[in-house]
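User: Show me a protein chain along with its predicted structure.
Assistant: Here is one chain, sequence first, then structure tokens.
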Amino acid sequence: MIQIEDLRLAATLLREPSLSAAARALDVTPPALSTRLRKLENELGLALAKRDARSLCLTPEGERFGREAQELLAKIDGLCESLRHDDQRLGGTLRVAAPFGYGRHRIAPLLARFSRRHPHLRVQLELCETPWPDRRDVDAVIHIGGVRDSSWIARELAPNERWLCASPAYLQAHGVPGSPGDLAHHACICIRENDEDVTLWHVRPAAPAGKRRTESVRVTPAYVTNDGAVARLWAEAGMGLVLRSEWDAAVGIAQGTLVRVLPDWRFDSAPVMLLVPVRKGRSARVQAFSEFLLQEHAGGR
């Protein structure tokens, strides 16, 4: 007979890239997990996964079992929540994915505050380079940028312009750009976070609105990284101009390590979004977490 531990095993194997990663997620050793997997396969009479020391590949039967195990576990969690509804306690596990920088500096402290309000709730935060659309097994995703996907409920947490910045030392040595066209003569730092063309920057005058259309500026990157923190560090070290999210650039500007460049021009914005899978949108813990995040961001914390 299939046990709830078997369901958790199958669901974990579906979302983790290797047997060792699945073992860490379940807090067991890889040999113990391998033994449990073999036992489950023997009981079912079919192979669920092909594995070696470095990778794990589910069979079609394993993928189906993992997906249905996820759905059953979600129903069990939902049942537990409904039984606790009368005393207003939230239980189960809240799984959140967020990008490295924003997740570390903004979401992690908020999750700590939220968990203190709901001590019966288990919280998991996964920081990754592209939390959307890669992570579809979570309860909520924090995403920076627009989203068009009907399988997600999207709510804006905060507006977020992109500011062009450089260090005082860089500007003193190379001059301050007076217009977007001047960027062709400057060292630029680009952040490659997805499949977008990171060397094509779109910019428009801040005011008066609507009198001039958006311009496209092609920059030749002197430095490219997939990590926003590294890009900001390079800019603060005087290596070039960087186009960075307002929430992060504002810190450097306040500290005097960065100066905003071309403040009368507006680059493409990237709002901070809360994404919830449609199938999980009615969960009590997800609804409570969503309202909490909206209130905290509205309060400017």
